[in-house]
Design brief:
With 189 residues, the protein is α+β, with helices and mostly antiparallel strands. It has 5 helices and 5 strands. 56% of the residues lie in helices and 9% in strands.
């Protein structure tokens, strides 16, 4: 990407594309019912960021209670949701930044800083949830934090990695814009 510059058509949209994938993973984490699940048969517990569902036996009906009745449930949902909204804002800003013909590298560094803030909020929600859930809600059987919780962590990791990339990209402004003469490491005998 640095070799050809950001005007190279296949490389220009990689960062907004990766942010878009992070947004999709965040939506899956927010909507998924697999934050916590029973690991073995009979499956008796399943929880999302928003509610906890149980059933007494294999053929029974699921009974759900909202986690928004707990202060920690509201805190976990709010912090993860703020991190997700900041990620969506960064995605929109990245599309604007890369659609402009003349890149504003300070603007790109600001997106990186905002991604770090989003990662902090996401990680706070992802840490509050399992700590308080396992200490305040009775769990029956063997349970595991499952696929939707994993998508939440994947989103947070993508926010951190893309934040580094957005912050470091302006350091290579001359190389990206093609303002540097090539150096050759050939010496004549």
């Amino acid at each position: 990407m640095v070799k050809y510059g950001l005007d190279y058509t296949r490389c220009r949209w990689i960062l907004p594309l990766l942010l878009g994938i992070g947004v999709i993973f965040g939506i899956i984490a927010l909507a998924g019912r697999g934050w916590l699940e029973s690991q073995t048969l009979p499956y008796v517990q399943q929880a999302s960021l928003w509610q906890n569902c149980r059933r007494p036996d294999q053929g029974g009906e699921w009974s759900c209670e909202s986690l928004m009745g707990y202060a920690w449930g509201r805190a976990a949902a709010a912090t993860y949701l703020v991190g997700f909204l900041l990620l969506v804002i960064c995605f929109a800003l990245a599309i604007i930044a890369f659609a402009i013909d003349t890149l504003r590298f300070n603007f790109i560094r600001g997106i990186g800083g905002l991604l770090f803030v989003a990662a902090v909020f996401s990680i706070m929600g992802l840490v509050i949830y399992p700590v308080k859930f396992s200490s305040e809600i009775d769990m029956t059987g063997i349970n595991m934090f499952s696929w939707a919780y994993g998508f939440g962590w994947t989103t947070a990791i993508m926010e951190i990695c893309l934040g580094f990339f957005f912050c470091c990209l302006p350091n290579y402004e001359d190389q990206i814009l093609g303002n540097v003469k090539p150096t050759y490491f050939y010496s004549s005998p």
